Amino acid sequence: QKILEKYHDRFTLQWEGVIGNMCAPSQAEWERLLTNCSAFLFYGMERFMSHVLLNWLVAMNIPKCRLVILLDLVRSQQSYQRITNSDIHKSCLRIALERPTETAMLLSLTGVGSVIATQWYSSLEENAERLETLFENLLSSGKTTGQTVHVLQK
């Protein structure tokens, strides 16, 4: 929340989304947010694709969304239990499509211009540091996404 407030005025007054853990967005809300944005940020628990329906995503056309940032792959006891219960109803192929590289490919096929995503599990604190670095470089310094990713890799 602090990071969003810090950078709110630097890039847009049209922030829109769902913040917090009070309710999970419906598939219709995910669709509305993705199709009406130029950039999309997911900062949450487990795999992003475990939150959206695969059939729904692959049928989407979202070329207005130029950048998707996925700061996912964070695990807690509660999220692990949720994902474990969800995964037992999925095929191995379906679970494989939720991995970071496959998720980036699927988003790219729907028309997203660039995808920045974590590749392995980390903590909320580590992802907060990544978000701060992303916003500092993309919004304050005006670096390109490629330049910003190089900063993250260092």
UniProtKB/TrEMBL annotation:
InterPro entries with a match to the protein in the record: CFAP46
Gene behind the chain: Cfap46
PANTHER family the UniProt entry points to: CILIA- AND FLAGELLA-ASSOCIATED PROTEIN 46
Native species: Sinosuthora webbiana
Source domain of life: Eukaryota
Gene Ontology biological process terms in this record: axoneme assembly; cilium movement involved in cell motility
Protein name: CFA46 protein
Upper lineage: Eukaryota, Metazoa, Chordata, Craniata, Vertebrata
